[in-house]
Amino acid sequence: MAQLEVMAAQLQAALDRLEALALPLAEVRARAAQSAAEIAALKLEREQLKARIAELEEEARSLTGVTDEVEGRLDEAITEIRAALAR
Fold it and tell me: How far apart are CA 21 and CA 44, in angstroms?
């Protein structure tokens, strides 16, 4: 009977050590899953920001074209006004 009790105590000690090792592992796995979800969200946000940057770059190119056109028209108007004043 004493030998059975010793073996039961050894088994309990082994189970306690296993549990002590398993709990931190479970926490690490939970953090890893959370980190993976955060990474996925950041990747999605990055793609959205890249798309928005592309839109803004296109808008900037368009505005540059408009600015150039307005500048040309203003130069023409100034030239016409100067010519009219010179008469």
Answer: 35
- DSSP assigned state of 36: H
Tokens 């946000």, residue?
Answer: 45
- Location of structure tokens 């039961």: 8
Q: What is the pTM of this model?
A: 0.56
**Could you read off the pLDDT of 25-65 as tens digits, one per residue?**
888 889 999 999 999 999 999 999 999 999 999 999 999 99
SS3 labels along the chain: CHHHHHHHHHHHHHHHHHHHHHHHHHHHHHHHHHHHHHHHHHHHHHHHHHHHHHHHHHHHHHHHHHHHHHHHHHHHHHHHHHHHHHC
> What is the chain's alpha carbon radius of gyration, rounded to the nearest angstrom?
37
